[in-house]
Amino acid sequence: MSDLIDKAVAALSERLSGPVNGSAKFVIEGEGALMIDGEGVRAGEEDADVTLSADAETFQAILAGETNPTAAYMTGKLTVEGDMGLAMQLGAALA
Fold this sequence. Notes:
Helices cover 40% and strands 28% of the residues. By secondary structure, it is of the alpha+beta class. It has a single domain (3-84), classed as Nonspecific Lipid-transfer Protein, Chain A, CATH 3.30.1050.10.
């Protein structure tokens, strides 16, 4: 597991208030993936209701609050496959 995934798990665990209704996978190109679901945030790659993908630079900028997740999606730096409503909930937690 990469340092970026470890840091992301810790940061997202702090930001999410309460359980997530559904499951999400965030794939970070060249680093791995993390899962967000009713059990919390953890490293791993499983089937999910929504999959978000970005390169490491974009993900770090989103996590640091330097890039808005919606803006990243609109410019093609963040891709979303699956439940868009759940993706929007996660975007609010990341922003």
